[in-house]
Amino acid sequence: MESALLAQSLLLALTTAGLYAAIASGLTLEFGVTGIVNFAHGEFVMLGAFLTYFLYESVGVPPLAGMLLSGLAMTALSWLVFDSFLSRVLKQDEHNQILATIGLSILLINLAMIAWTPDARVMHAPALLPPLEIGSVIVPGNNVVVLLVGIALYAGMIWFMRGTRHGLLLRLAADDPQLAVLTGVDVTRMFRLSFLIGGLTAGISGGLVALILYVQPLVGVDLVMRAFAIVALGGLGSIGGALIGAVLLSAAENLTATFVPGGGSWGYGVAFVIIVLVLVVRPTGLFGSERRA
């Protein structure tokens, strides 16, 4: 019985890791390229979740198509936000950058509460895949979808970064912006591109949130805190590290929820403990490196 419970917990942790990794991938790419810790990233996930929810519940758009449309919408919003003020903040003190993204986060949350109330909503979508049954362990089909979409997002991002010219330019801009400028790279354009990719992943991640969790204005705050723990654990700016960090955090949360009395409400606590331990023991994370001054 204990082994079945452990297997169930670990399999669910793996599917949850797909969601966490999808959210953290965009966040760590934005930081890795621009050096900005985007506290508003969770609100882009929240907006993607609301958009997917309303597209399905009001218009009947299938969830997977809704996720894609949400991703495109958040890409457009990221472009608007970057060109309207973030590109200017990039040239300022890092404290101003932090305050700018925190301010944007608070603004988006308040607008969402005014528009849609703080009440949680549940998208009543059908199972997109049959349940995964391994012996006595059963994983709901929509959780499997979340895992598959998370893997696809990650594979796509790694291919883009390592197999395309724009990925190479992004890495050049991230490693040494001044040297990149001297070699003819439009660094501002690369910074914008990193935010567009971050917006795309946030919108799709929001669709995954709507599929298996709930939708409400503060859902992004909850998830982005976990994303920060993942990024800190995997290493700031490391996309591969974020994937491993997502698996470790998700496993820690699910095992705590399963085997510790009252552990289901410890999700935030587990994330904070990981952040503190990493900052004390290895500030650069498992796969991170010191950023150039």
Automatic annotation (TrEMBL):
Source species, domain of life: Bacteria
Compartmental location: Cell membrane
Molecular function as annotated in GO: transmembrane transporter activity
Family as reported in the entry's similarity comment: Belongs to the binding-protein-dependent transport system permease family. LivHM subfamily.
Protein name: Branched-chain amino acid ABC transporter permease
Keyword Transmembrane: yes
Keywords, sorted A to Z: Amino-acid transport, Cell membrane, Membrane, Transmembrane, Transmembrane helix, Transport
InterPro entries in the cross-refs: ABC_transp_permease, BCAA_transport_permease
Main subcellular location of this protein, as a coarse class: membrane
Gene Ontology biological process terms in this record: amino acid transport
Transmembrane region(s): 31-56, 68-86, 98-116, 137-161, 193-215, 227-251, 263-281
Membrane topology: Multi-pass membrane protein
A single cellular component GO annotation: plasma membrane
CDD domains with a match to the protein in the record: TM_PBP1_LivH_like
